[in-house]
Amino acid sequence: MTADLSQARAVTMRGTVLTALALAGVVTVMVLALRFTPVEANQGLAQKIFYVHAPSAWAALLGVALTGFASILYLWLHDPRLDRFAAASAEVASVFCFVVLTTGPIWGKPIWGTWWTWDGRLTLTLFLFFLLLGYHTLRAALRDPLERGRFSAVLGIMGLVLIPFIHLSVYLWRGLHPQPVLMKPSSPSMPPEMLRTLLTSFAVFTVLYVGFVTLRYGIQLARDLREAADAG
Amino acid sequence: MPDNGQYLTAAYIVAGLIYVVYTVSLLVRAARARE
Fold first, then answer.
1. Please, which residues have CB within 8 angstroms of residue B14's CB and are 6 or more apart in sequence?
2. What is the Cα gyration radius of chain A?
3. Could you tell me if A23 lies within 8 Å of chain B, comparing CB atoms?
4. N or C, where is chain A less crowded by C-beta within 10 Å?
């Protein structure tokens, strides 16, 4: 038992260190974007919101995708570690999704002239956020761990199903949202200085996702061990 | 070139705040789980 709790502490510590490094990386990305990346001629400074918005969207979709895959495996293997990971990843994905849904409109106002439009990409991202809120509400409402794991896994898989539609929405429904500049079959459509900042940002936000999930997983592991000890 | 730097500032502050607040919430929960 003591060894297990020390394992939970070690996971939490690893997550804390990774998160601290990644947050320093986020500051570096912002400085890189502000000081060492050219200003886009048509959009002006507001274009630089992209260096936080797009990598946050990547991290959100990565989180939802991994929640979905972990949920599929949980329904098959019934391993509590998979359920714990899915829950941690879904919570972190919600935070990234919230950043996407706040920075997007702040970019949209000066560029589109409106905070919000019911464009396919925006609407589906909002639906994904609501789905994640539903996931957390469901988990909070169910006491039995097996029932909680099984029911929430179904919602986790629903999130995974939504991802291709979100990615392809700019092609399926030609709305206002720009088409991908990086995640597309052809080569990236931006100058090398901008691409360097964007790729750095994608790497940093991936580490931030891993840091957050590791930290969240460690917290849940400690709680589960304590509950098991109290029950035993 | 359009003058819209205030939107960039707002977006970076909002995103930064969300990430910092979430980090603090995780650290508080980690400390409680350790007790």
1. A99, A102, A103, A106
2. 19
3. yes
4. C
pTM of the model: 0.95
Question: What pLDDT sits at residue A1?
Answer: 47
* Chain B interface includes A57 (CB < 8 A): no
pLDDT tens figures, A79-135: 999 999 999 999 999 999 999 999 999 999 999 999 999 999 999 999 999 999 999
Interchain contact A38–B (C-beta under 8 A)? no
B13/chain A closest Cα distance in angstroms: 10
Contact B3 A44 (CB under 8 A): yes
B18 to A53: CB separation less than 8 angstroms, yes or no? no
Do A98 and A129 touch, CB atoms closer than 8 A?
Answer: yes
